[in-house]
Amino acid sequence: MTRKTKTQAAPTFTAPAIPPADVLGRLAALKTAATPALKQQWRELFGTEPPPYNRRFLESRLAYRVQELAYGGLKPETLARLEALGEQLDGGKVTVRRMRGDDKPIAGTQLIREYQGVEHVVTVTRAGYEYGGQPYQSLSAIARAITGTRWSGRVFFGLRPSRSAA
Length: 166
Known about the structure:
The protein is an alpha+beta fold. The chain has seven helices and four strands.
């Protein structure tokens, strides 16, 4: 006589309910928690192993998750709208989604850099940048005008660390 055994499905993860009254305390505790404690919270709140990212990433995602579990996530209508907007922007192409967007600062931002005892102020415009009353297409062109040598404008103005600092 042969017996058929029922195949059991893997247990589904159920996130714990978080009372809204506990949210502020839990958020504040994230800043002082040790990294192993953050990783344990990740396992409890997401039901997966934590990703190998830095502490700041873990803190921010855990903070969102705590609030999501306490107050609820995005409404289905909001998710559908976001998905539709994404489809409009990238035509449903996953490779386009993974490309980096324009990382230029918002128009109106002022970048200030002291160089050889002189303070230099650059204003970000919609068309590019303005320095000394003149329009420029790139920060690198401004850095060259200031220093007389070739520089990465983003490094010169502190928007990206230099390779030697990495």
